[in-house]
Amino acid sequence: MIKWWNELSDYYKHLIVGFGLGVVFTILLAPILAPTVGFCVSLGIVTLIGLGKELYDSKQPGNRFDWKDLLMTVEGGIFGCLLGIIIRGLFKF
Predict the structure, then answer these.
(1) Engineered SS bond to 77: which of 22, 35, 52, 64, CB 3.0-4.6 Å?
(2) Per-domain boundaries in the chain
(3) For residue 79, how far is the Cα from the chain centroid?
(4) 21: Cα separation from own chain's centroid
(5) Cα distance between residue 77 and residue 29, in whole Å
């Protein structure tokens, strides 16, 4: 499993992780927030996590803040949050 992950482009890794976080946070927040609010809060959390990762990267030697990485994380988060809302609707929670 690790081999294929290491061979992926960094942008795809950001997309996949953003997607996963979006699904998880949207579902976890389902019992306490309405779907649209849960979507917005979940996407905000994903964005903050992506921003934190890029700020961390910018402090590493030989690395920099990459807006494209952050954008891919947020794009993945959007699709993940949408899937989370669909799952909420299908399972009624």
Answers:
(1) 22
(2) 10-91
(3) 9
(4) 4
(5) 15
Tens of pLDDT, residue by residue over 4-45, are: 667 778 889 999 999 999 999 999 998 999 989 999 999 999
Give the DSSP letter of residue 93: -
37-46 in b/e form (b: 16+ CB < 10 A) is ebbebbbebb
User: What whole-number distance in Å separates Cα of residue 13 and Cα of residue 75?
Assistant: 12
Q: How big is the chain by its Cα radius of gyration, in Å?
A: 14
pLDDT in tens, 42-77: 999 999 999 999 999 999 999 999 999 999 999 999
Locate 35 and state its tokens.
């779907």
